[in-house]
Amino acid sequence: MNQKQPQQGQKRILAVDDEPDLTTICSLALEHYGFKVDTFNDSYEALSRFRPDYYDLVILDIKMPKMDGFELYNELKKRDSNVKVCFLTASELYYEEFRKKEYCALDKNLFIQKPIDNEELLKEVNKIIESC
Questions:
Q1: What pLDDT was estimated at residue 2?
Q2: Out of 6, 49, 81, 87, which could bridge 36 as a Cys pair, Cβ 3.0 to 4.6 Å?
Q3: What is the mean predicted confidence (pLDDT) over 3-8?
Q4: Hey, which residues does 111 pair with through a beta bridge?
Q5: Mean pLDDT of the chain
Q6: Max mean pLDDT range (22-26, 40-44, 64-68, 125-129)
Q7: CA-based radius of gyration for the chain
């Protein structure tokens, strides 16, 4: 896990993905653009270290072992009902399956398709932070 103190006014992001390479790339890219990023590769660890009213955005991979991104989303919302969350997914089918069930109320713009380049990630993150 990467956890450094943010500079004043710096936007804080929590990124959770079971693939360490992806959290590292996400962290490096967003930190390059001035964000403070904490990363976790385990949903349960992320949940146990989550701080309510701290993050400007939480980025969750959907398909993770033990606790998937939607389950983690539900647990985070119990701890902080105002937390802003977006989802990363490499599988359109997995995304559609869950969007049709209990998560149909989630805005489609909160889903980011992997792979994504750094500039597009920055654009999507800024758009979500500003719109919610």
A1: 47
A2: 6
A3: 54
A4: 87
A5: 86
A6: 40-44
A7: 14
**Cβ neighbours for 118, distance < 8 A, ≥ 6 positions apart:** 29, 32
- Whole-Å CA distances, 34 to 37, 76, 96: 9, 24, 33
Instruction: Evaluate if residue 16 carries a pLDDT over 50.
Output: yes
The CATH classification number of 12-131 equals: 3.40.50.2300
Sequence-ordered list of residues with C-beta below 8 angstroms from that of 72, at least 6 positions apart, any chain: 16, 43, 46, 47, 60, 64
Question: What is the C-alpha to C-alpha distance for residues 49 and 95, in angstroms, rounded to an integer?
Answer: 26
In sequence order, what are the residues at sequence separation of 6 or more whose Cβ sits closer than 8 angstroms to the Cβ of residue 86? Answer: 57, 58, 59, 60, 110, 111, 112, 124, 125, 128
